[in-house]
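Example record for the data management plan.
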Amino acid sequence: MPSATRIAELQAENFAEDVEVPPEAAGWSEDRLVAFLESGGVESSAQGSLAAPLGRRARVACLHGTAGNERIFTIQASRLKLALKAAGADSAVYEGTEVIAAENPHGAAMRKIFGDQVLREYAPALLDEAGRRTYEPAAAEAAVADLEARIAGAGGCDADAWKRLFAAPLPVPALVVRGASDTVSAEGPVELVAHFRGARLVEHKEGHRPLPADRAAADGLIRDICSFVLERCPP
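Corresponding structural encoding:
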């Protein structure tokens, strides 16, 4: 529990001298206090704020990868979706509105596996000098606004303010899965974890795929995901 002096120090370290700290903060952990300060005094406990009973089944919004669609994602994650449903969580896939360009390098690989079908993305994917996938700001903003509109009453974020969200690690529970042999995403999942306070990184031994082909490894990962969702969004 931080002392009054330590609270003042943390305010200074996080440029939050103007954030009013409530009296009960004396009983918080430093991590919880820092998350509160970084949020501008909005969130006092990321996990606690999301863990109250919903009074209904949890709902999981699913987004497919570049060069994908609802049908492909449903095939790839069918066992996970069934496990979530059995555990008490519904799921819905929101397709990208952009049809991929003919030169998209992922298109040929996806059609080789899943046949000739319309492949989509949320915004045209680009690569930076380090080989990381990036998006033009205007296209990314439009994609977020569209998803927010479609998710509607399920709790979408403020699309106009999304760029400010990652100025500091988000105090939002996050579970990131990485394949140790993934040459497509490479270190992307590790970099993604840094954007969320207290995020959990789970790694399997295989490559770029939603679930490992090994049945035992896939079952373990599915259990981890279901537990993560239901612990933070109890029915």
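Summary line stored alongside the record: The chain has two domains: 4-44, 50-232.
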